[in-house]
């Protein structure tokens, strides 16, 4: 059998579900490559603040919750922006300690890039890498439903690769 035949056989079996492997790798067949998988594995909800929340209060939230960003909501409970640790560091660089009493709206990134639950993990990684940001709000039918971090996306991508690897290994070992 040639290398081309082996490659074709292996590629033919990528993604075929093997229940035991799916359970071990936290992968669901229907959403193996979408952000929906990440959202289903995370606790529901997200951490959000109002536009007039002070940077001091935001820092307390980030520290207590051990997170890297909060969503900033507008007057009508719509997503107005996102405020990350990086935004705050930039604020310190420009305004020093005086930044602590400023409002979140002054430092937030307004109108952030968003994704949907159907966005693929690969696309999310591309968006985050190209845009140089680490947090991606998820919107479904114009409703904010969650937030994923680059860490969430990388972990899901690793799980996806482990699932594919285990599937191929099981196939090659004659377990299919």
Write the layout of secondary structure elements.
Elements: H1 3-13, H2 19-25, H3 35-41, E1 48-50, H4 55-65, E2 69-73, E3 79-84, H5 85-95, H6 104-107, E4 109-110, H7 121-131, E5 135-140, E6 143-149, H8 150-172
Parallel strand pairs: 1-2
Antiparallel strand pairs: 2-3, 3-4, 5-6
How does this structure look, described?
- With 176 residues, this protein is α+β, with helices and mostly antiparallel strands.
- The chain has one domain (20-172): Roll (CBS-domain), CATH 3.10.580.10.
- 48% of the residues lie in helices and 16% in strands.
- It has 8 helices and 6 strands; from the N terminus they run αααβαββααβαββα.
- It has a 4-stranded mixed beta sheet.
- α2 runs antiparallel to α8 (150-172) and α7 packs antiparallel against α8.
- It is elongated and about 65 Å long.
Which shape, going by the Cα principal axes? Answer: elongated
The count of strands amounts to 6
* Separate helix tally: 8
Rg calc: 20 Å
Strand content: 15-25%
Low-confidence stretches: 1-31
CATH superfamily descriptor: CBS-domain
Structural class: alpha+beta
Please estimate the helix content: 40-55%
Q: At the third CATH level, what is the topology name? A: CBS-domain
Give the strand order of the largest sheet, numbering strands 1, 2, ... along the chain: 1-2-3-4
Which H/E pattern describes the elements?
HHHEHEEHHEHEEH
CATH architecture: Roll
CATH top level label: Alpha Beta
Number of domains: 1
Report the major sheet.
4 strands, mixed
| Mean pLDDT value | 82
Q: What is the terminal-to-terminal distance?
A: 19 Å
């Amino acid at each position: 059998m040639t290398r081309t035949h082996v490659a074709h056989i292996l590629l033919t079996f990528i993604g075929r579900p093997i229940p035991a492997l799916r359970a071990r790798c936290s992968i669901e067949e229907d959403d193996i490559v979408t952000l929906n998988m990440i959202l289903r594995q995370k606790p529901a909800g997200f951490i959000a603040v109002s536009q007039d929340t002070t940077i001091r209060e935001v820092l307390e939230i980030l520290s207590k919750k051990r997170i890297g960003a909060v969503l900033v909501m507008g007057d009508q409970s719509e997503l107005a922006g996102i405020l990350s640790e990086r935004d705050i560091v930039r604020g310190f660089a420009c305004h020093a300690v005086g930044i602590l009493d400023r409002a979140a709206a002054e430092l937030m990134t307004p109108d952030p890039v968003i994704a949907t639950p159907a966005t693929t993990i690969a696309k999310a990684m591309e968006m985050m890498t190209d845009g140089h940001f680490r947090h991606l709000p998820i919107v479904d039918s114009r409703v904010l439903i969650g937030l994923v971090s680059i860490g969430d996306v990388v972990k899901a991508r690793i799980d996806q690769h482990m699932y594919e690897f285990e599937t191929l290994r099981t196939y090659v070992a004659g377990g299919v």
